[in-house]
Write a structure and sequence with these properties.
Blueprint: E1 5-9, E2 16-24, H1 28-36, E3 47-52, E4 59-68, E5 79-86, H2 88-99, E6 104-106, H3 111-118, H4 124-135, H5 139-149, H6 152-177, H7 182-208, H8 210-218, E7 220-225, H9 232-240, E8 258-264, E9 267-273, H10 283-298, E10 301-306, E11 317-320, E12 335-336, H11 345-360, H12 371-389, H13 393-411, H14 417-424
Parallel strand pairs: 1-6, 7-9, 7-10, 10-11, 11-12
Antiparallel strand pairs: 1-2, 2-5, 3-4, 4-5, 8-9
């Protein structure tokens, strides 16, 4: 069955200076010809043309149009782009005219990218990198996503997979020599074990760095905790430079953790404002305190605010707030500040930026940011470890096949049907 031709707005929501509509599929070029009511522009050359409604003949817009013949396009299909004036009525009327043409319909979320995957223009890891790029909010996330979308992880997985297949070929050759040439089989087995051990070390190194990669992608978690009314919400607002958390003089205002994203020198982080820690008979507040402690236990950093007479905890950073009304600095707090006046906030922010750079090391490559990727590389390393330790050649070859299969999952060469819908559902319409 012939695939439908899809159309969608590929730029931001109108109104805007320019709006871009993409059309992909077998009817893309004939549809453009009908809207132009004249000769098509040369392939891959943008031209200023009048777009007309094929039914009424009325002028839709004066637009820049370009056609890209298959297969060398973003989707692998015939592709058309219309660069319009970005008014809502222009976009709506042009999309309406397009979808009234035979075989053309509105695209679903992620459908352009899904066709690129189906037509081998992108592999699965590159698709995930593209989704990360669209969602990137900091420079470190952008750099990480560009590397993934550019195929860095896929190329690494394919290179390791090729080395595994070479060892697998040696193992199968050893099977052929097993009965007649025992010394040859033994030499091949030793050679294979050395090669496998080297591969395991390389893959383990990548997996070991996956925590940092995930932190760059998902952001660092910074929990702000301490007793009630010590100024936790005020500090969160001061660091975020906006009123994200409710501030009142009433103790116990914050119950559920409040998450506020911030940018720490190009590294994404989330400030988590939590319920004040104290003894309470209120079951709702008790639940809030329980959640606060749970978030603190899993955080990358804990900022504990202390009041007069409070002892500094042994972990995390201790922050003494309300320096504007204190009679003396807190004796053991790392930072003395006032969230109300802003005194000391810049010093705390600078320290957080420096800490984030040390933890995330954003300038260094960090590819293994997705749980799916970590699982595949971990499975491959485990299989290779087993293969290196096994003397039985038949069992060794099975473990080598399992390792190659695991790395094949990275680019989507095997076992991808169960993850496709989940991945493409993350994309917006028109991507």
């Amino acid at each position: 069955m012939t695939a439908a031709t899809i159309a969608a707005l590929a730029s931001g929501r109108p109104p805007s200076a320019v709006a871009v509509i993409r059309v992909s599929g077998p009817a893309a070029t004939p549809t453009l010809a009908r809207l132009l009511n004249g000769a098509l522009p040369p392939p891959r050359r943008m031209s200023l043309r009048r777009l007309q409604d094929p039914q009424s003949g009325s002028l839709l817009d004066n637009a820049l149009v370009v056609q890209f013949p298959a297969p060398d396009t973003a989707t692998g299909e015939d592709l058309v782009e219309l660069h319009l004036h970005g008014g809502p009525a222009v976009v709506s009327d042009v999309l309406d005219a397009l979808t009234r043409q035979p075989g053309v319909r509105l695209a679903e979320a992620g459908e352009f990218t899904r066709r690129a995957f189906a037509n081998n223009r992108l592999d699965l890891a590159q698709v995930e990198g593209l989704a990360d790029l669209v969602a990137a909010e900091t420079s470190s996330q952008r750099q990480q996503a560009l590397a993934l979308a550019g195929g860095s992880l896929s190329h690494l997985a394919d290179a390791w997979r090729s080395r595994i297949i070479a060892v697998l070929a040696e193992a199968e050759a050893a099977l052929d020599f097993a009965e007649d040439e025992a010394d040859v089989a033994a030499r091949l087995s030793v050679s294979s074990s050395k090669a496998l051990s080297a591969l395991v070390m390389e893959i383990d190194g990548l997996v070991a760095d996956s925590g940092r990669a995930a932190r760059i992608r998902d952001g660092l978690a910074i929990v702000v905790t301490g007793p009630p009314n010590v100024g936790k919400s005020s500090l969160v607002n001061a660091l975020a430079m906006r009123d994200a958390a409710i501030v009142t003089p009433i103790a116990g205002t914050t119950r559920d953790p409040i998450e506020v994203p911030i940018n720490l020198g190009g590294v994404a982080a989330t400030l988590i404002d939590t319920a004040g820690i104290r003894d309470s008979d209120d079951p709702v507040e008790q639940e809030g305190i329980k959640r606060a402690r749970a978030r603190a236990a899993s955080a990358d950093l804990v900022l504990t605010l202390v009041g007069e007479g409070d002892e500094a905890p042994s972990t995390g950073w201790t922050v003494a707030n309300k320096s504007d009304i204190r009679t003396a600095p807190h004796p053991t707090a790392r930072f003395q500040l006032s969230a109300l006046t802003g005194a000391g906030i810049s010093e705390l922010r600078a320290a957080l930026v420096e800490w984030a750079a040390v933890v995330a090391r954003p300038g260094e490559p960090a590819l293994l940011s997705h749980a799916r990727h970590r699982a595949a590389f971990t499975d491959a390393a485990d299989a290779l470890r087993n293969a290196a330790a096994i003397d039985d050649l038949v069992l060794r070859t099975e473990e080598l096949r399992r390792a190659a299969h695991a790395l094949g999952r990275i680019a989507g060469r095997v076992d991808v049907d169960d993850v496709l819908d989940r991945i493409f559902s993350q994309f917006c319409i028109g991507k």
